[in-house]
Amino acid sequence: MTDWGHRAVSLLEKLADCSESGPGVTRLPYTPEHRAALDVLRAAMEGAGLAVSLDAAGTLVGRREGPPGSKCLLVGSHQDSVRQGGAYDGIMGVVLPILALEKLQDEGANLPCTIEILAFADEEGVRFPTALTGSRAVAGTFDPSVLDMRDSQGGTLRDAMVSFGLDPDQIAELSRDQADVLGFLEAHIEQGPLLEEEDEAIGIVTAICGIERHQIVVTGETGHAGTLPMAGRRDALVGAAAIVSEVDRLGQTTTDLRATVGALSVEPNVVNAVPQMVKLSAEFRSPSDETRLNAGQAIHDFAQAMAAKRNLKIEATKTYSQMAQPCDINMSNRLTEAAQKVGASGLKLPSGATHDASAFADLCPIAMLFVRCRDGVSHKPEEYASPKDMDLAISALSQFLKSF
Ligand code: GLV
Ligand code: MN
Ligand code: MN
User: Residue 74: CB partners within 8 Å, gap ≥ 6?
Assistant: First the structure.
């Protein structure tokens, strides 16, 4: 009898090797590591009897036809990782449904609908200051202006796609007709501690948080650290530090708000010169769109007050936002039934991370299956889901896939 959990482990290990060197997994979109992962996924999809193609946004699509005229159930997640991230975030949500389909194929099950498994190029938004590229393309909400966004090397998203052999001008053609789609299902590592605390291997997601990201550029005036008097200094890093503290204060004092400065660069970044310019990010997440929007406005207001107080120039720009998305009740009930059939309780929990599923809410009903992760750890090399839990998730997914 096939041990599906260990099949998942060996596939995920192969995929973890498709990484830049260094701790954990670093697999950014439209890179040689992405290409290597697509080769592994293509072979696995073909092994599960899927017809495989790569779409114009770099999403690998594995399709199994259902009865003639049947609608399509979309299932998937992202291939990309954060820098020095784990081996499960995203990619596990591609591997598990592939194995669920292979399991159904081994069992000789007849599928009631067409199924497509999608491995999206870029969900994390680590390389370019945008995210959910492939899922938005399929959902019909891709904004072509993001093609001009640049990575840290100065290259545009458009050029990265073209070098990868894609035709970004075809992305607009990828959007699906609502009438053809049954829904979108994503399996994902929980990235939090709730399932572990409740001693549950898998759970059903109720809603995905909303997110907004800002870039803040603080400009002051550099000078000799030993001779420039303290009075009247226009130190960009001192202004930026106040903003970092304010972001944290907002997060600490506002219910259901996560507030983070995750990236910061200093110029000239030398030990004996007053900082001239600081660029920093500010990210806010909440299940309440109002809470998140208020936090974003509050940090813009604070930045302007800090500019006046310290005689700095501060430009704050919202670079990204997505609304909070509840999961569809009917699809989630169907997923709960599938989970209960394989012995899980069907525990319900919210998601503080974002997911490709949130983009699909604009097209069709969405549902998400979470898999327990050790110590709630994610976006780190230590991220881990056990073979036993993945085995149960594969069983639940196969129940779900044949339930339509
Ligand atoms: C992606 O994992 C995110 O939540 O930012
Ligand atoms: Mn992630
Ligand atoms: Mn993810």
Answer: 116, 118, 138, 176, 181, 182, 183, 184, 185, 360, 364
Considering the domain architecture, whether residues 138 and 23 belong to the same structural domain is answered as yes
Of the bound ligands, which one is closest to the alpha carbon of residue 284?
Answer: 1
Q: How do residues 62-80 score in pLDDT, each as one tens digit? A: 999 999 999 999 999 999 9
Ligand 1 atom with minimal separation from the 352 CA: 4
pTM of the entire predicted model: 0.87
Residue 53 and residue 197 in one domain: yes
Cβ of 81 closer than 6 Å to ligand 1, yes or no, is no
The Cα-based distances of 212 to 120, 215, 288, 296, 299 in angstroms read 21, 10, 12, 7, 12
200 and 333 fall within a common domain: yes
Is residue 291 located within the same domain as residue 168? no
pLDDT score for 1? 85
Instruction: State which of 354, 368, 370 you would mutate to test the pocket of ligand 1, scoring each by most atoms of that ligand within 8 A of its C-beta.
Output: 354
The answer on 218 and 195 residing in a single domain is: no
Residue span of the structural domain in which 179 resides: 4-208+324-402
Same domain? 328 vs 305: no
- Do residues 248 and 372 both lie within one domain? no
- Say which CATH number the domain at 9 has: 3.40.630.10
Segment 235-294, tens digit of pLDDT: 999 999 999 999 999 999 999 999 999 999 999 999 999 999 999 999 999 999 999 999
CA distances from 158 to 60, 140, 145 (A): 18, 18, 10
| Ligand number nearest to the C-alpha of 320 | 1
Q: Is the shortest distance between the CB of 124 and ligand 1 below 6 Å? A: yes
Q: Is the CB of 126 under 6 A from ligand 1?
A: no
First vs last Cα of the chain: how many Å apart? Answer: 26
The closest-lying atom of ligand 1 relative to the alpha carbon of residue 90 is 2
**In the listed set 259, 291, 322, which residue is the last one of a domain according to the structure?**
322
Does the Cβ of 59 fall within 6 Å of ligand 1?
no
φ, ψ of residue 84 to 5 degrees: the values are 55, 45
Question: If the chain, 404 residues long, is cut into consecutive pieces of 10 residues, what is the mean pLDDT of each piece?
Answer: 96 98 98 98 97 98 96 98 98 98 95 97 94 96 96 96 98 97 98 97 96 97 98 98 98 97 97 98 96 98 98 96 95 98 97 95 97 97 98 98 95
Q: What is the atom index within ligand 1 of the atom nearest the CA of 124?
A: 1
